[in-house]
Design a protein that fits this description.
Blueprint: E1 2-3, E2 25-26, E3 28-32, E4 35-38, H1 39-47, H2 61-80, H3 87-98, H4 104-114, H5 118-140, H6 147-156, H7 166-196, E5 199-201
Antiparallel strand pairs: 1-2, 3-4, 3-5
Helix pairs in contact: 2-5, 6-7
Length: 210
């Protein structure tokens, strides 16, 4: 169990619409090599709108898995060292992020609740964007669809395409196969990253490791 500053744990409501006192207990929920991953980091990023739950997952696992994926992706990107974001990309992403809040005051309230500043949000946003764009560029380099695969997909399920000829649905089939290949390669790649960086996940409440 880890004790954190009050602003880095779950809030208990005070007066309606106002942030209340904070619970100061936290859990180490995973370890990536020599880095401890805290429960509060996952819940904070989700609360700030920086972390979306994974589809097909339930409960806290839907948040934890994409967060850990992000961390191992960032580790590889930093090891390679040749991938970086342009200042324009960061500014555009941050402007889009701020538009989620009703106004500047609402954003400031959220920062105060978590005891962080604007730079901390930008740092985490950059990390999320880097992981996403690095993933796309890295996987696209390794996947491809052969003409023969497009033809086989058309012949395997002709009813799916109605009365359209192969040349009419060629691009549609290619995009579908590319999406499927992207998902398969992403799963395979992330499995190797979890193994390389020795990801160890713990059950909350010290119920053991998974």
């Amino acid at each position: 169990m880890t004790f954190l500053p009050a602003a880095q744990a779950t809030a208990i409501s005070g007066e309606p619409g106002e942030p209340g006192p904070w619970v100061v207990l936290d859990d180490v929920i995973a370890v990536i090599a020599d880095e401890a991953v805290l429960l509060s980091d996952v819940t904070m990023e989700h609360d700030l709108g920086l972390l979306e739950p994974a589809s097909g997952e339930k409960g806290f696992e839907a948040l934890l898995k994409p967060y850990l994926n992000r961390l191992v992706i960032i580790r590889e990107a930093e090891e390679i060292g040749s991938f970086s974001l342009a200042s324009g990309q960061i500014q555009e992403a941050y402007s889009g992020y701020l538009s989620r809040f009703e106004d500047e005051e609402a954003f400031e309230v959220k920062l105060k609740q978590w005891g962080i500043d604007e730079q901390e949000v930008i740092t985490r946003l950059v990390r999320a964007l880097t992981a996403s764009l690095y993933t796309e560029s890295r996987i696209q380099f390794f996947i491809g669809v052969l003409p023969s695969e497009i033809e086989q997909a058309y012949q395997k399920d002709p009813d799916r395409w109605g009365d359209r000829e192969l040349f009419e649905v060629w691009n549609e089939i290619r995009e579908t196969l590319q999406e499927q290949a992207f998902i398969r390669e992403r799963v395979r790649w992330l499995d190797t990253l979890w193994e390389r960086y020795q990801v160890d996940v713990f059950k909350i409440g010290n119920e053991g490791a998974s």
